[in-house]
Write a structure and sequence with these properties.
The protein is mainly alpha-helical and about 90 residues long. The protein is about 60% helix and about 5% strand. The protein has a two-stranded antiparallel sheet.
Length: about 90
């Protein structure tokens, strides 16, 4: 992060807290728990996709697509473009 020169010629500096959090190597230890947690959440979400319902029978995927293209009796449909609903 650096200083930014505006159209009027003013120099805008980054806040000192932003410099500390994003540019200082010592703050990497503050980001480590967040990055580990986010990585765990991502791997956990991926692991649910490899269950037998998704891979073997296809029932879960068929149910997802069926609910995506149905038009409810009242309210707004999830897919508002008819051509896209027909495509799916």
């Amino acid at each position: 992060m650096a200083a930014v020169l505006t159209c009027r010629g003013d120099v805008v500096q980054d806040p000192s807290l932003a410099k500390l959090l994003f540019n200082d190597m010592r703050s990497a230890w503050l980001w480590l728990p967040l990055r580990l947690w986010l990585g765990y959440q991502w791997l956990d979400a991926v692991s649910h996709k490899f269950t037998p319902a998704w891979l073997e029978t296809g029932e879960a995927l068929r149910g997802f697509w069926k609910n995506a293209v149905t038009i409810p009796a009242q309210g707004r449909p999830p897919i508002s473009f008819d051509w896209y609903r027909a495509f799916l």
